[in-house]
Amino acid sequence: MVKSKYSIYTYAGIFLGIATIILLIIFSTTIDPWENAKKVPIPQSVGVLICILLILYMLYRVFKTSPQLEISQNKLRIHGLLHKEKEISGNDISEIDLFSIGMYNGSATIVTKIQLLTGKKIQLAAPNYKNMPELKIAFAEYFFEKIKNPNILPKKSFENSEIEFEYIKISGNPYTSINGILIFGFAIFIIVTSITSKKEFEPAHLFLILPIASLFFVLSYQLHYFIFSGKDLLVRNHFLPWLNKQYVISDVLVFNSEQANKTSRSLRITTKDYKSRNYPAGSLRDKHWDILKEKIKESGIPFIE
Question: What pTM, to 2 d.p., does this model score?
Answer without folding.
Answer: 0.58
